[in-house]
Amino acid sequence: MWSLLRKSKHSHAATDIWRWEVSGLHAHQSDRMLREPFALAISHTYKRRRVHELAKKIPSPPGASSVFGALKYSLLGKDSVSDRDDVEYILKNCLEKENVMRFFREIIGNAGIFAPVSTWIHRRKMLIPAFSPKIIKSFVSKQARQGLELSEQLEIDGRVGSGEFSIWPYINAYTLSSIAETALGVKLDALRDPNIPFLRAVQDVLCFIASRIVKVWLWSEFIYKFSNLHADVQTSKTSLYSLPDKIIKEKREALYNNNKMKNLREKQTIYGQGQDSNSFLDHLIMLSEEENRLTDEELREEILVMMLAGTDSSAVAIGYTLVLLAKYPVIQEKLYNDIKNHFGNSDRPLNSDDLMALEYLSRVVKESLRLFPPVPGITRKAGDKEVHLPSGIILPRETGIVVSIWGMNRDPKQWGPTADCFDPDRFSDKQTATYASFSLGPRNCIGYKYALQSVQIAVASIIRRYKVVGEPEKGSVPTIDSTFSIMMRAKDDFKIALEKRHN
Ligand code: HEM
Predict the structure, then answer these.
(1) pLDDT tens digits, 60-69
(2) CB 3.0-4.6 Å disulfide test: which of 26, 147, 156, 362 passes with 461?
(3) Predicted complex ipTM
(4) pTM
(5) Which sites bind heme (predicted)?
């Protein structure tokens, strides 16, 4: 079991660096502890006396002694002292992920986001060209079509002009379909059929992983193996793997048996006739062919990671942006007028030039992601040596670290006295503050350009047609009751009302 004992001396919103331990135990060690409690506890405490010594020098806030209380403090914590240098140092130098990632690995395998550094370096190198600006740009037309389908489906389902509803299932279906089409190259119509087995499985595994993280007794492999959750995970894994495995097999066959690699290089579509760009999978097969060939299993792992990392996170970002626009009608009108002036009376689909031109849209999305980062905190782990932070704090070796993105993004030392206010115009000037929503350093979010594009397209598609209505916020500091599982999310699943715009 883990708990957070100490908070960094120089901690503040930006550097909520916590030590994750109970008597210095790490997760895998706690399993053994269950079996051999006393002998191990004594030997372990002795071995980790340096850890305890350093921990004592890191002050704790009141209430940080329980697992959940402390986790909440660490992710959403805010107090006075600022030290972004510490955060930047950690994110650049501590690239290993915390042991909690093993829960993801059990299902997804050793793909980039969860992998140990030794595997991650090679995979990240392979992924970088697949996320080039040119490739991301080539997805705009697909995403714009899906944005249009999203706005149409809301009307078909009678959601427009009929009071408050949760927009979550719609935006989640949009991001799922969008990532399925761009990552795998298949059109899965989640908006009309949310029960496609693969899409269900993606949602299920996210819930199962979140569930195992909070049920600390299931951290023991022994107890977990006999739990219902384990059985559910095995069933979902089969559904989760079947579609990517089938597509990978078909693409490989198309590429090698029919000798179509040349065609792929010339940007023609092998799978899914009539598409105007290749999927991430196409690019990965091609890129991995040029260097070290990824096995089918490795390809599946990377594709699944994109789907898991890119679905809920982008949907959460769309949800918060819409709720904020409902709370701030003046900002919404400014955005609407900007979009209207740009498109005039045309209802043509949005393209990449439009995205470049709609500058206020990009500011609104960025500001929403700053105040409500879908991933409010990230975990890292100190290596086998102590980490000496610029502020003078020494983190014991192998310490689990939680960095609060929420705190970084709301740090008054960086963002000034209006740090908590919703003000998209703060991005009209060049910002010197550290924007952490997609993390920093070599292990940051590789999909951030894709994500911004996808969120902007969804928001523009809705705002072009509808007015988002909700209770206006009384002040400039928005409050949205939120909960945290793997992502942060509004407790009411993003309830809004929509009214049709009449030009
Ligand atoms: C608004 C949406 C998104 C947010 C807020 C977000 C945020 C993040 C964050 C905070 C990390 C962790 C970085 C770290 O540990 O330092 C991450 C990693 C990652 N994200 Fe995203 N992400 C989003 C969308 C996406 C999308 C759409 C994709 C793929 C198409 C994606 C792919 C990844 C991958 C592959 C990693 C692992 C990077 C690595 O370890 O090398 N993300 N993301």
Answers:
(1) 544 443 333 3
(2) 147
(3) 0.98
(4) 0.84
(5) 445
